[in-house]
């Protein structure tokens, strides 16, 4: 009878093609796997997998009745399985920390819905089409695993066959650390250093998104000098340098790159030794203070299980994602949108045919995985629950979420470590896009706020610039350290020990302590802006810039600018503590808007130049020397009012994915007014000049412009609380600290991220799949601080 039923549904069975994505390791709606209770059901038409509680939903939606049922039982792990010592600062990869993945026995059957009629597999009685389809599914690499392997192999470059025999010409060329230009044209970006003769030349046309003039490849065609390295990609991590082989026409590895660079005066020997020593210390968690303190190593951690206390298994350098998402799903906005107010069934019903590529479905799946408590269970070792105090869980693997959120970002698609700030901004951008049709339901709004910059030129007239942002990026004023006396004594001790050839112990290290309040003050502190074109004076001059917030978001994310670029090539992490308060009040940071008696700078000065800043060429050239696109560097300088290299770089990293990032810089007045709105106000009987002024002062809002005309003073007060965007949330300026994302390591591209979240009256540590009570949260060491507004 079952066999007849199967034969009657053969039209719904497909034999997978090599190009088909086959899911057989994880349910696309939940985190059920073949080893979960009830196993996994693979749809033999779409090759999507479903857990036992969800396969019925797929049958209802698609009518596909035939499934391959896979069940796994765990094999015991030998007690004498050796633990390999890690050689890389990574988890779950070859050379990294061993995850000790278990092995499984698998059993299979064919199941036909809706009555779950079951036929054994393998069986010669089954129709040939079914046997061929099942064989193809079982032999194929699962889509989940395939994506992971592709991510790793994409990062692996081959050693160039020309590297070991490369001849270098001793022509006296010495390469400076910045200020480069193509030897044959004026290009200052996308420059390549030929490793044979030291010539600096521009790249190919349309290469790397920024056009060159082909001078580097033409030089190879003339000389046949094979290898070049892209300037701006060279750091102490020489493996990360972009080396290109012209005869091999591919990016390659040069194992002698340090020697080849030293030939032209770029000497890495001492720097490399320092970096290796640092990496060794980071690997040795017993001696490295940062790792122990942030991960709360060396002390018993009380394990936590249940709703909201689910760990995330490391997929291989995915801790930046895990730490960020643990804090994100501790906010009411994301918890409500993707857990309380949206069921898995609803998300699946409205998802496209392939729910694995739908961000709404995968965010809902991740939310239910983290918040339901269903997967918050102790890790099992050799069929025994791990009763140690490690707080380790089985955890859930956010593979499908990572694949869909990374689809629009090439860096997050790799298995390399990434910047948690950059990931947070990318996530918020993607969430905002998918909720564009229903902004009221958009949880990204809870992080969004307005920033207003006021520029005053010597004429006394002012210009106001407004923009929206999701993080408040703060400089750390080291000169405001509160422990200067202890620092002086430490530097004396350090000098003395160095003179004696002794090392400083971790107990003796003293770091600057800077209050968070001083970091916040540095954001709004008046600063000079050089090269500002004043349309009142019709000349370049120095303006005074101040900044404030036009709205206070539900959640305020503070980004501490701990990573700075030192003179030369080396990115440096500031060794500093930030003294933070659990409750802060930023009410004083609210911008005042246009004030009574203030006069805006004229719209234009009768010249081609506008009130818009011209980019500071020093800032642009320094950013371009790091390998950034020249146009992007100009935009970064302009959008940060030429405040400095660090500010511009932070802006650049946060806006790399802007849809208009490659659009030319328009020559237009900043305070452009919509002519149709001017005409509307003129039709009301107002003078045209007054209408223009009112629209500028009210951000283009006709209703507010009318109020401004009748009562400029009251309108100015209203502008104080008005935002750049009417959809921005706003309220009091009092906030409570609810989350930390901390980083260990010398740069955001390596090391490890850990989250601490304040939940149910206590601090909780989320360290990948380790979840427990935090006894000493590292509040003074975080990279990102998450504050929640206190509702009055």
UniProtKB/TrEMBL annotation:
One of its GO terms (biological process) is signaling. Residues 310-790 form the USP domain. Residues 614-655, 672-712 form the UBA domain. SUPFAM superfamilies: Cysteine proteinases, RING/U-box, UBA-like. Zn(2+) binds at residues 182, 185, 202, 215. GO terms for molecular function: cysteine-type deubiquitinase activity; zinc ion binding. The keyword Zinc-finger applies. Its EC number is 3.4.19.12. The keyword Iron-sulfur does not apply. Residues 158-268 form the UBP-type domain. InterPro entries: Papain-like_cys_pep_sf, Peptidase_C19_UCH, Ub_carboxyl-term_hydrolase, UBA, UBA-like_sf, Ubiquitinyl_hydrolase, UBP13_Znf-UBP_var, USP. The active site is at residues 319, 752. It catalyses: Thiol-dependent hydrolysis of ester, thioester, amide, peptide and isopeptide bonds formed by the C-terminal Gly of ubiquitin (a 76-residue protein attached to proteins as an intracellular targeting signal). CDD domains: Peptidase_C19B (cd02658). Keywords: Hydrolase, Metal-binding, Protease, Repeat, Thiol protease, Ubl conjugation pathway, Zinc, Zinc-finger. Belongs to the peptidase C19 family. Recognizes and hydrolyzes the peptide bond at the C-terminal Gly of ubiquitin. Involved in the processing of poly-ubiquitin precursors as well as that of ubiquitinated proteins. This is Ubiquitin carboxyl-terminal hydrolase.
């Amino acid at each position: 009878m079952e066999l007849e039923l199967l034969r009657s549904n053969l039209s719904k069975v497909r034999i997978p093609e090599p190009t088909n994505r086959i899911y057989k390791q994880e349910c696309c709606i939940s985190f059920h796997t073949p080893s979960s209770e009830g196993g996994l059901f693979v749809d033999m038409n779409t090759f999507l997998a479903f857990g036992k509680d969800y396969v019925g939903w797929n049958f209802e939606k698609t009518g596909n009745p035939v499934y391959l049922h896979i069940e796994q039982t765990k094999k015991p792990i030998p007690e004498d399985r050796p633990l390999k010592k890690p050689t890389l600062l990574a988890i779950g990869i070859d050379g990294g920390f061993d995850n000790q993945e278990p092995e499984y026995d698998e059993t299979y059957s064919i199941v036909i819905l809706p009555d779950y009629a079951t036929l054994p597999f393998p069986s010669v009685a089954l129709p040939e089409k079914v046997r061929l389809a099942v064989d193809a599914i079982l032999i194929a690499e699962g889509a989940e695993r395939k994506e992971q392997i592709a991510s790793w192999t994409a990062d692996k470059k081959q050693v160039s066959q020309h590297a070991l025999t490369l001849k270098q010409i001793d022509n006296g060329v010495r390469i400076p650390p910045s200020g480069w230009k193509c030897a044959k044209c004026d290009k200052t970006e996308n420059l390549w250093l030929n490793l044979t003769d030291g010539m600096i030349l521009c790249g190919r046309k349309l290469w790397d998104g920024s056009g060159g003039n082909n001078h580097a490849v033409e030089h190879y065609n003339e000389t046949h000098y094979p290898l070049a390295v892209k300037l701006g990609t060279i750091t102490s991590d020489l493996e990360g340098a972009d080396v290109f082989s012209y005869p091999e026409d591919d990016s390659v590895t040069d194992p002698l790159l340090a020697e080849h660079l030293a030939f032209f005066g770029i000497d890495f020997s001492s720097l490399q030794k320092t970096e290796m020593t640092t990496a060794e210390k980071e690997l040795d968690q017993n001696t490295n203070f940062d790792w122990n303190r942030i991960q709360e190593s060396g002390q018993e951690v009380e394990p936590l299980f249940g709703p909201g206390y689910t760990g995330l298994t490391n997929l291989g350098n995915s801790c930046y994602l895990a730490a960020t998402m643990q804090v994100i799903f501790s906010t009411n906005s994301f918890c409500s949108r993707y857990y309380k107010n949206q069921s898995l069934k609803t998300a699946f019903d409205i998802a496209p045919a392939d729910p694995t590529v739908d961000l709404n479905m995968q965010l809902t799946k991740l939310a239910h995985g983290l918040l339901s408590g269903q997967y918050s269970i102790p890790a099992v070792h050799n069929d025994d629950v791990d009763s140690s105090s490690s707080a380790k869980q089985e955890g859930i693997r956010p593979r499908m979420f990572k694949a869909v959120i990374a689809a629009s970002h090439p860096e997050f698609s790799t298995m390399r470590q990434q910047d948690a700030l950059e990931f947070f901004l990318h996530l918020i951008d993607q969430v905002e896009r998918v909720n564009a049709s229903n902004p009221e339901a958009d949880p990204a709004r809870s992080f969004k706020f307005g920033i207003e910059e006021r520029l005053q030129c010597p004429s006394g007239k002012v210009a106001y610039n407004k923009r929206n942002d999701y993080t408040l990026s703060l400089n750390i004023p080291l000169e405001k350290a509160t422990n200067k006396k202890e620092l002086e004594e430490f530097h004396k001790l350090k000098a003395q020990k160095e003179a004696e050839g002794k090392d400083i112990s971790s107990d003796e290290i003293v770091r600057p302590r800077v209050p968070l309040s001083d970091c916040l003050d540095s954001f709004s502190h008046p600063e000079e802006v050089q090269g500002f074109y004043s349309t009142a004076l019709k000349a370049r001059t120095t303006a005074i810039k101040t900044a404030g917030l036009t709205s206070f978001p539900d959640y305020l994310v503070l980004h501490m600018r701990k990573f700075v670029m030192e003179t030369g090539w080396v990115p440096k992490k500031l060794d500093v503590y930030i003294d933070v308060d659990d409750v802060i009040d930023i009410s004083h940071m609210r911008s005042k808007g246009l004030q009574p008696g203030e006069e805006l700078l004229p719209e234009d000065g009768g010249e081609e130049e506008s009130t818009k800043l011209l980019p500071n060429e020093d800032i642009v050239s320094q950013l371009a020397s790091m390998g950034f696109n020249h146009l992007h560097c100009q935009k970064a300088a302009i959008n940060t009012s030429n405040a400095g290299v660090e500010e511009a770089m932070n802006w650049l990293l946060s806006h790399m994915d802007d849809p208009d990032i490659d659009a030319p810089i328009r020559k237009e007045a900043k305070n452009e007014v919509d002519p149709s709105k001017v005409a509307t106000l003129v039709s009301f009987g107002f003078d045209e000049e007054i209408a223009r002024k009112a629209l500028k002062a009210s951000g283009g809002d006709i209703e507010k412009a009318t109020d401004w005309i009748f009562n400029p003073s009251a309108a100015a007060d209203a502008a104080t609380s008005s935002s750049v965007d009417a959809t921005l949330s706003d309220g009091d300026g009092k906030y409570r600290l609810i989350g930390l994302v901390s980083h260990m390591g010398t740069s955001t591209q390596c090391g490890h991220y850990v989250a601490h979240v304040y939940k149910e009256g206590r601090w909780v540590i989320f360290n990948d799949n380790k979840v427990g009570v935090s006894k000493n949260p590292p509040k003074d060491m975080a990279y990102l601080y998450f504050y929640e507004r206190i509702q009055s």
